[in-house]
Structures are given as structure tokens and as C-alpha cells.
């Protein structure tokens, strides 16, 4: 059984939770039920089969460190649930482009020196899958890294709301290179988007006419600090809004829906508070309103989803699949190439795993 070699762009809270999660469960017993994981062994690959080849960042406090040390380095402030041992996996200097916005530049100093040879490192380490955890709004930086991935010949998982897997231009580029791409914008295990989608589908299933809805999110991680720069928010708002409106059978009007970040509260750290309201009409045009608040540690909430996405990406590589991989993307991401109701996304992903999973020979 080969390992899955993974490189990570952006060693922030999400990377921290992912690396912690792999080592927290790397010896999980076969068939063990793990919160946020579809299968301990997915398509033949155990969680412990994931290995990290190198990390990429621009922060002077992270570049040059071992990945196991960098994931706990400030401004990272997520929940620590695992002590990761030294990995002998370096964090190298990446390309900045538009990856460092105004507010992040107040707390992050760029590491000196040139950008590392990303293509060379990907080839040298025989990396299978590259994950992008770049900050929201990193349009040019994302495209630059995609070009490196295409040249090096790796699968790409786009965790941020810059539209790659959902765009025909990039789908074509990955098809031409014979490589798979997954995305866009990672869903959480139980996050604001999935909860909002479930409530919208509940309204649909029970015949409630949704008239207005809103989702206001606050948090204290660098993602929320970065999003104070409203110019960086366009793709994020589109992604989160489409994830919800795609479940509606009718148009409620742009003015009747607001979904997006609201503000940065430093002392929340990596916790997120999501405040949701849905207003609708029931039988007899009688009003029905729902208000709720969700509180989560933001980054661990998506780490299990990413572990499953990585293993599906490896299955796609094994079978020479290319372009956007629709089934798992629909389940793992907010803005996939095709939107389905969540129960159908899950079913399609399970079928994908059964179809492309490693086959073991039966004993006679």
C-alpha cells in the first residue's frame, strides 16, 4: 500500500488542525467510528497513510521551521488536541502575490529570500496532492500555485473561495494535463453553511415558503481578520450564498438573502459564532421564523472533511481521472462544479469510493 504524499500551501489554523488530525487518528482501529470521517479506511487508504511532503508559507516565523512546529506558531490560535512529533518536513518560502492583505500585513512579516522552487520540490518529494489554504481573496496567488501544480503533475484541492474546480477554463487545463481537481471552498463537518442548507431543505420538504434569510458570522482567527478588508470578500460571499440558494426551488430575490462574515473579535480566537435567521410562510400564509446560533472551533470543523477529500483525490489519481471530480467535490465543498442536495452528495461520494477504491483479492 503506497502512502499519500501531501503538500500544504498556507500553514495556518486549518493546516494545523489537519496535521494534528492525521496524527491523532493515524493508528485508529479498522472500522472505528471517528467523528467527521466517512471511513477509517477509505477506498483502501487508512488515515495513517497520509504523509506530508512539505509546507509552504511566507511568514518569517514559520518559514524554515519543521511543519510540526510551524502549526503551533502564532498567529495560529486554534484548538490543540494533539502533540505532533517532529516530522522532518520543512516549511519553505512561498509566493506572496495578493496572499497578504492589508490587515494580515499588520501582524505577519514576510520571510526574506526568494520563492522556493515549488515545481522542483513537488517532483522531488513525489507529492501526490497539493492543498491550498491560502487566505480569502488570494486570486492571483491561487492561480500562480495552480500553474505550479499543473506543471509538477499533482492533484489539487482548493479549500478557499477562489473559483478553480467550478470554472470551465481550469477544468479544461486539468483535463489537458490528465490531472484531477477538487473544490471549491471546503465545507465544515457541521458548519454554518451545511446547517443553513439543512434548514432550507427542511423548509422545502415541509412546504414552508422561505421569504428572507441571513447568516452573520464572527470569529477571531486570521481568516476573519483578513476579511475585514471587504474588497477580498466577493468570492467568499458568492460561494456561501450559492451554497444555500442552490437548494431553493425558486428565487427569493437578492435583497432577501445575506450570507457572509460580519466582524472580527480577537478574543474568540479560532472559534466562530454564526447567527442565522430564516423567515417563511406556512399554511394560511401564517409566518414562521427560526433564529439560532452555532458556535464551533472553525478549523478542526473542516479537518476531517479534508482527510476524506485527500483520500478521494488519491483514488482519482490512481485511476487517471482528470478535470473536476464532481461527486466528492459536491459533498466536500461549498461551490462544486455541480450542486446537489446533501443526501445525494453523500450517496454519490460513497458510490465513487466503492467504484474507485482499491480492490483486495478475496481469499480462496
From TrEMBL:
Myo-inositol-1-phosphate synthase GAPDH-like domain: residues covered:
191-299
Give one GO biological process term. inositol biosynthetic process
* Record-level Gene Ontology MF annotations: inositol-3-phosphate synthase activity
Fetch the InterPro entries from UniProt. MIPS (IPR052199), Myo-inos-1-P_Synthase (IPR002587), Myo-inos-1-P_Synthase_GAPDH (IPR013021), NAD(P)-bd_dom_sf (IPR036291)
Source domain of life is Bacteria
What family is this? Belongs to the myo-inositol 1-phosphate synthase family.
Protein name per Swiss-Prot or TrEMBL: Inositol-3-phosphate synthase
Amino acid at each position: 500500500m503506497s502512502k499519500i504524499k501531501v503538500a500544504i500551501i498556507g500553514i495556518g489554523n486549518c493546516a494545523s488542525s489537519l496535521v494534528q488530525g492525521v496524527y491523532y487518528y493515524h493508528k485508529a482501529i479498522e472500522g472505528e467510528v471517528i467523528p467527521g470521517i466517512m471511513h477509517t479506511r477509505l477506498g483502501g487508504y487508512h488515515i495513517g497513510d497520509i504523509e506530508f511532503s512539505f509546507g509552504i508559507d511566507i511568514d518569517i516565523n514559520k518559514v524554515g521551521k519543521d511543519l510540526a512546529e510551524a502549526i503551533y506558531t502564532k498567529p495560529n490560535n486554534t484548538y490543540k488536541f494533539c502533540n505532533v512529533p517532529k516530522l522532518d518536513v520543512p516549511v519553505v518560502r512561498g509566493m506572496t502575490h495578493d496572499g497578504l492583505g492589508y490587515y494580515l500585513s499588520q501582524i505577519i512579516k514576510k520571510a526574506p529570500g526568494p520563492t522556493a522552487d515549488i515545481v522542483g520540490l513537488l517532483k522531488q518529494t513525489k507529492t501526490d496532492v497539493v492543498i491550498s489554504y491560502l487566505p480569502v481573496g488570494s486570486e492571483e496567488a491561487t492561480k500562480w500555485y495552480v500553474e505550479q501544480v499543473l506543471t509538477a503533475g499533482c492533484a489539487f484541492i482548493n479549500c478557499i473561495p477562489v473559483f478553480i474546480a467550478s470554472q470551465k477554463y481550469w477544468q479544461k487545463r486539468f483535463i489537458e494535463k490528465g490531472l484531477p481537481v477538487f473544490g471549491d471552498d471546503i465545507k465544515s463537518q457541521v458548519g454554518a453553511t451545511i446547517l443553513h442548507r439543512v434548514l432550507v431543505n427542511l423548509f422545502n420538504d415541509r412546504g414552508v415558503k422561505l421569504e428572507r434569510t441571513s447568516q452573520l458570522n464572527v470569529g477571531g482567527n486570521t481568516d476573519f481578520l483578513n476579511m475585514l478588508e471587504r474588497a477580498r470578500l466577493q468570492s467568499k460571499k458568492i460561494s456561501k450564498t450559492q451554497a444555500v440558494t442552490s437548494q431553493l426551488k425558486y428565487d427569493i430575490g437578492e435583497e432577501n438573502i445575506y450570507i457572509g462574515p460580519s466582524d472580527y473579535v480577537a478574543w474568540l480566537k479560532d472559534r466562530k459564532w454564526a447567527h442565522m435567521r430564516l423567515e417563511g410562510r406556512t399554511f394560511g400564509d401564517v409566518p414562521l421564523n427560526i433564529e439560532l446560533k452555532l458556535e464551533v472551533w472553525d478549523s478542526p470543523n473542516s479537518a476531517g472533511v479534508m482527510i476524506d477529500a485527500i483520500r478521494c483525490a488519491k483514488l482519482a489519481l490512481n485511476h487517471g481521472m482528470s478535470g473536476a471530480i464532481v461527486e466528492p467535490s459536491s459533498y466536500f465543498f461549498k461551490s462544486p462544479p455541480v450542486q446537489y442536495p446533501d443526501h445525494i452528495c453523500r450517496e454519490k461520494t460513497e458510490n465513487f469510493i466503492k467504484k474507485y477504491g482499491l480492490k483486495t483479492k478475496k481469499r480462496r
